[in-house]
Write a structure and sequence with these properties.
The protein is built from 6 helices and 8 strands. The chain is α/β, with parallel strands linked by helices and 180 residues long. It has one domain. The protein has an 8-stranded mixed β-sheet, sandwiched between helices. Strand 7 and strand 8 form a beta hairpin. Helix 3 packs across helix 4. The protein is globular. The protein starts with 8 loop residues before the first strand and ends with a helix.
Length: 180
């Protein structure tokens, strides 16, 4: 049996929804992570201040996505009156059930978790290096899904690549996985 690697990233160690990204904030406290580390209030803002607009966009898109999920299937949007307040008070914190991972997905069809890989290029890199084994069904040039593993590949978390319309599409895809 293949031994699972340690998940490495930011957020709740007991996540049920994880986003996988191919880069790490260039701050000393994150470069040597060896596990999932929960964020605290104002830490997302600090990362944005130190690392720039690209990271602000990642966090904003992540919060918008969670806030867009069907309220009958997921409770993220019930925790705060806006996606901005959700981002600042809950996203990637200890009991958020969310994670932003810098390690490859550890897929287990029996674990009820959702996995979202940011970017087709990163997904292909994971596959080509043998770090991801998935049964991806490419729906178009931007989105792919492996229903058995609750895995979705989508455009990178940036407004130009993952517009509000595409965030809504991604939210529907996650709800379809939830209800299948």
């Amino acid at each position: 049996m293949k031994q699972l690697q340690q998940n490495i990233g930011l957020g709740c160690p007991d996540f049920n929804l994880a986003v996988y990204i191919g880069n790490i904030p260039s701050m000393p406290e994150y470069l040597d992570l060896s596990a999932i580390t929960p964020l605290v209030d104002a830490e997302i803002d600090s990362i944005g201040q130190a690392c720039g607009n690209g990271w602000r966009k990642v966090f904003n898109v992540y919060a918008k996505l969670l806030y867009s999920l069907d309220k009958n299937d997921f409770s993220f949007s019930q925790l705060a009156p806006s996606w901005q307040q959700y981002r600042d008070s809950f996203l990637l914190q200890s009991k958020s059930n969310t994670a932003l991972l810098f390690s490859p997905p550890q897929l287990d069809p029996d674990a009820y978790k959702y996995h979202i890989i940011c970017g087709k290029t990163y997904a292909r890199q994971l596959i080509e290096t043998g770090k991801l084994t998935a049964n991806l069904n490419w729906l178009d040039d931007e989105f792919a899904i492996d229903q058995n593993n609750r895995l979705i590949v989508c455009p990178y978390f940036d407004y130009r690549q993952l517009s509000n319309l595409k965030i809504e599409r991604l939210a529907r895809m996650i709800s379809q996985l939830q209800n299948s």
